Amino acid sequence: MEILESLTIEGVSIFTGYSMIGTCASFAWVPSATLQSNASGSSFVMKGLECMYDVEALLIRKDLFLRTADSRDFLLTNFQITDIEDSENVAGTADSLEILSGSFPEIKNFIQDEEVVIDKRNHIEAFEVMSGVISNIQNGLEINASAARNIAEKFVYDITRHPDAVTNLLDIKSFDDYTFTHNINVSTLAVIIGQELGLNEESLLNLALGAMMHDIGKLKIPLEIINKDGKLTDSEFNLIKSHSNLGYEILSMSQNFPEIVKQISLQHHEKHGGHGYPHNLKGDEISLFSRITAIADVYDALTTDRPYRNAMPPYTAIKSILSQVETHFNPTVLKAFIRRFSLFPSGSLVHLNNNSVALVIKSNSKSVLRPTVKVLKSSDGHILKKREVVNLMNEKDLYILGPASVESLSKSSLKRQFLS
Predict the structure, then answer these.
(1) pTM of the predicted model as reported, rounded to 2 decimal places
(2) How far is 30 from 11, CA to CA, in rounded Å?
(3) Which CATH number fits domain 120-341: 1.10.3210.10, 1.20.140.10, 3.40.190.10, 1.10.3810.10?
């Protein structure tokens, strides 16, 4: 990690992931001379700050992304606003200011030398592409569809070249607030589901592209409504629902998005049994790509912390989705999702019938209840230093009893290593 020295950057666009907060004429950074002993970290000043919404929108965020006019990206970590008396010159502290490409997290491998789904460079490029998409939309310009299609091609390549790679989305969730990682995760999940359904490469490419853009209409919805902590009023909910049509309209401004891609933005909140929005479509009236994206969208949303609720464990999220088969979700698509991810997706903690605790590292499409696990805590209650990888398909007398909580592991260092 490269910690930057004092510097001032000009013409800065400020993002909280996928959502643009505003701009500032300059961002001045002064690292603390006693960083290791000073818990408040280093200081910064945003001069000429112009927020698209209230400046208080900054207060609920943990990290900020700063992008300069010459496309340099920076990550401001764990920041705190300390002075907003002058709303155009906001002061604060932060742990660090880092070059984005040097700080983007690697996706952890649970099995040595096993490939992961999307590599680090492509995640970085995806952020850069989406930053450009946001900037163009805010300035009333056409989206660079070719850049978006290029990163979608890389996602499809990464996933299809290793169809059995570990899919663990938990590690990238801690990097960013919901909106950016949500769109990347939904695209990843959708392609994996599409692959399980036997879609060809061109179809997977359009699916990846559409899923990545599925929530683009939310850029036109005020952040205070999207992140509202509490029940939405009828008018606020209607405004939220308008993002489907808005997304379709935004994508239609470009001549380079196929209709099948634009339909994902329009239809991903339609429900299999009807009563969705915006057009109350049902069954096969909803495009296949939209049906796939709907499941990926809900699963990732349920398993991510939001300002108004805590994330569900993967097992609980999948049980919730299964309870809505036929009403909300297409049964065929849902079966493909379960075959690939199982009831206990990668990253889930589980109790085994011998009283041990294990981490799911790989699902098994032939048996959704018998994934490959890594045993973290022995049956007699000891945290294991040497952790055995067990394929439950090969263990007749060993099986999962149910989900385990973080509290079932007694060492905080172990929790951090696997769940943070």
Answers:
(1) 0.72
(2) 18
(3) 1.10.3210.10
**Neighbouring residues of 44: CB distance < 8 A, sequence distance ≥ 6:** 27, 28, 29, 30, 76, 79, 91, 92, 93, 94, 97
- What are the structural domain ranges in the chain? 7-102, 120-341, 349-419
pLDDT digits (tens, 9 = 90+) for 36-51: 444 456 899 999 888 7
C-alpha 165/C-alpha 153 separation (Å) is 18
Query: What per-residue confidence (pLDDT) applies to 108?
Result: 40
CA distance 307 to 21: 16
Q: Could you give the CA distance from residue 14 to residue 44 in angstroms, rounded to a whole number?
A: 14
- Token pair for 13: 């666009």
Residues 6 or more apart whose CB falls under 8 angstroms from that of 255 comprise: none
User: Do 94 and 41 form a contact (C-beta atoms < 8 A)?
Assistant: yes
Burial 284-295 (b: 16+ CB within 10 A, else e): eebbbbbbbbbb
Q: How far from 164 is each of 106, 158, 289, CA to CA, in Å?
A: 19, 11, 22
Q: CA 201, CA 8: separation in Å to the nearest integer?
A: 45
pLDDT tens column, 380-391: 888 887 888 999
Q: Which residues contact 288 (CB under 8 A, 6 or more apart)?
A: 197, 333
Query: CA 216 to CA 142: how far, in whole Å?
Result: 13
Whose CA is closest to 45, among 73, 69, 26?
26
- List, as own/partner pairs, every contact residues 193-198 make where C-beta atoms lie below 8 angstroms and the sequence separation is at least 24, other chains included: 193/292, 193/295, 193/296, 193/333, 193/336, 193/337, 193/340, 194/289, 194/292, 195/159, 195/160, 195/163, 196/336, 196/337, 196/339, 196/340, 196/365, 197/288, 197/292, 197/332, 197/333, 197/336
Burial class (CB within 10 angstroms; exposed 0-12, middle 13-18, buried 19+) of 70: exposed
The alpha carbons of the chain give a radius of gyration, in whole angstroms, of: 22
Rounded to 5 degrees, what are φ and ψ at 346?
-55, 135
Alpha-carbon distance of 352 to 357, in angstroms, equals 6
The 10s digit of each residue's pLDDT in 262-275 is: 999 999 999 999 99
Q: How many CA atoms lie within 13 A of 364 on its CB side?
A: 14
